[in-house]
Amino acid sequence: MGGALSAVLACGGAADEVAERPVLADSQVSGSDTASATSRTPRPRVVILGTSLTAGLGLEPAEAYPAVLQQLADSAGLAVEIVNAGLSGETSAGALRRIEWLMQQPAALLVIETGANDGLRGIEPSTTAANLRGIIAAARAAHPGVPIALVAMEAPPNLGAAYTDRFRRVFSEAAAEAGATLLPFLLQEVAGRAELNQSDGIHPTAEGAARAARTLWPALEPLLRRTASPP
Question: Among 18-27, 67-76, 186-195, where is mean pLDDT lowest?
């Protein structure tokens, strides 16, 4: 990944911050039709807390990776409602401030995608780690026993090997400490590939977002299977 990730992420902070676009929440069901969202027996809600990568900056709502995950779940016969709670420009500190409000609504599974902007800003990894612990604790205070999945994130290599290694460990250690499922790095098949990124070189195209969804799917599918309503 190395140079490719550096080329993509090292220039990304400002672009991600400019468009603070909340994509959420209660009424935003990625890839679900109106009938399923208003059915008499609501599907368990899978909430994805995330940054512009989750929000689908520059894409149609149906093209963002949470919408693609919804399509994959539907195709697999898994009755879940995937809710896109992405917010462009958000750091882990912002996600921590938002989680209590977000968890006022039902959540059968929480997926956390945060930290990309922390790495871009060179935020101390211990600060990111503390924020992740706070997010998980707040989610479980609101919904005791809620399963949690944490998306691994990478920092730009130009910040130095020591920083990038510490930053990478934050996610695996936080997941292990909390008993959460660690999901792969979202952009591992997309970063540095011009044909899979928009003109800013940062945010995935529709095809890039689809690849990101397929990157998460093998690890996420068992959680969705346990979460889904019985057929």
Answer: 18-27
Domain boundaries, the chain: 2-34+42-227
d(CA 36, CA 42): 7
Residue 25: how many other CB atoms lie within 10 Å: 15
- Residue type at position 189: E
Are the C-beta atoms of residues 80 and 67 closer than 8 Å to each other?
no
d(CA 142, CA 180): 16
CATH topology of domain 2-34+42-227: Rossmann fold (3.40.50)
The torsion region of residue 115 among left (phi > 0), alpha (psi -120 to 50) and beta comes to left
Looking up tokens 């990776």 gives 65
- Helices 92-102, 125-142: axis angle to 10 degrees equals 0
Q: Report the catalytic residues.
A: 52, 200, 203
Q: What is the pLDDT of residues 63-102, one digit of tens each?
A: 999 999 999 999 999 999 999 999 999 999 999 999 999 9
Distance, CA of 141 to CA of 231 (rounded, Å): 30
